[in-house]
Design a protein that fits this description.
93% helix; 180 residues; mainly alpha
């Protein structure tokens, strides 16, 4: 009988810890900042995967370069579109291996200048999306808080009831022992 209140306290503590962990996980899931971070990480992984598929490893590129002339002749014979695609791929590999020239840097800077308005629009769109998400996210967090508070109150009420019932049983048992 003496362990029942201790068991209840331990169960209540475990329930509180579980609720806290659940609330933290829900808060992390609905956080706009974390949502954007997860999307950014997925995008980075996709870009890396694409780059790996296009570029391959350095070892594969070296082997391909040494075997290329014979391989090209065998695979592109009678297929001009395939020959053009292979030539484009080879040109892309060579271009990526060579350092940039001054003209390329100037063209890149000019393209960046032209892309600046688009960048600003994208930033504005991102901020707008974050603003639109913040309202529902706050509402969700409030709903979760309210549900957690209600659950905690229910658990506390049930624990008090169980503790009271245990206390009454202990008192009754003690009275019975005294009467005997």
């Amino acid at each position: 009988m003496g362990t029942a209140p201790e068991e209840l306290r331990m169960e209540i503590a475990e329930t509180r810890a579980d609720l806290s962990t659940t609330l933290d996980a829900i808060g992390d899931r609905v956080s706009p900042g974390r949502m954007i971070e997860r999307r950014k990480n997925r995008m980075a992984a996709s870009v890396q995967s694409l780059r790996d598929r296009v570029m391959g490893t350095a070892h594969q590129a070296t082997e391909a370069a040494t075997d290329m002339p014979d391989e090209l002749r065998a695979r592109t014979q009678g297929a001009p579109i395939l020959a053009g695609a292979v030539a484009f791929g080879v040109g892309f590999l060579i271009a990526s291996a060579l350092p940039t020239t001054e003209a390329e840097e100037q063209m890149g800077a000019a393209l960046m200048d032209k892309a600046e308005p688009i960048k600003d629009e994208l930033v504005a769109a991102g901020k707008e999306a974050a603003e639109h998400l913040s309202g529902p996210a706050k509402e969700s967090v409030e709903a979760v808080k309210e549900a957690a508070t209600q659950s905690a109150q229910v658990v506390a009420g049930e624990a008090k009831g169980a503790a009271q019932q245990t206390k009454e049983q202990v008192t009754q048992t003690a009275n019975e022992v005294r009467s005997s």
